[in-house]
Design brief:
With 154 residues, the chain is of the alpha+beta class. It contains three helices and seven strands, in the order αβββαββββα. Strands 1-3-7-4-2 form a five-stranded mixed sheet. The longest helix is centred in the N-terminal third of the chain and has 23 residues.
Length: 154
């Protein structure tokens, strides 16, 4: 009977760790699609754009696919990856929900048995673009071209 409790306790702890891990952290992958830049400091701000086009031009550096339990964990994970690649903008491209179901079969020993357990967890799966702002000097924009005076032309 003691070995049953020990085995059941082990399974319960492992299941809890899996569920806790899926709901409180993020895991993902990075695909580099552009040039590389030096990493940014942790204190550097990162613009977060949610399903919109930024009002400035950007140069794409890569794509991050991330799975997490909560949106803020996804954002922090993507910001970390962005800083590592020198990106100062992250743009949400796609988002969805994924649900995992796990079945742990019951055990039988002698006259006693324990029933199987079903556990489920759901989380977000997101695709983010990491990018770098393209700064355009004011004197190069079309609307800001400097007009010459008559005295400058002579």
């Amino acid at each position: 009977m003691t070995t049953h409790r020990f085995k059941f306790g082990k399974i319960f702890i492992i299941t809890c760790l899996i569920v806790f891990g899926l709901t409180n952290c993020a895991m993902g992958s990075l695909t580099i699609t552009g040039r590389s830049y030096p990493p940014l400091a942790e204190t550097e701000p990162i613009d977060v754009i949610m399903r919109a086009v930024p009002d400035y031009q950007v140069e794409q550096i890569g794509i991050v696919e991330v799975r997490c339990g909560q949106l803020n964990h996804c954002i922090e994970y993507v910001k970390e990856k962005a800083r590592e690649q020198g990106a100062d903008v992250i743009i949400l491209a796609d988002s969805g929900i994924v649900t995992s179901i796990q079945y742990m079969p019951g055990t039988r020993a002698g006259n006693t048995s324990t029933p199987g357990q079903i556990s489920s967890s759901s989380g977000q799966i997101q695709t983010w673009e990491i990018a770098r702002k393209i700064l355009i000097p004011h004197n190069e924009t079309k609307g800001n071209k400097k007009k010459k005076n008559v005295s400058e032309e002579i």
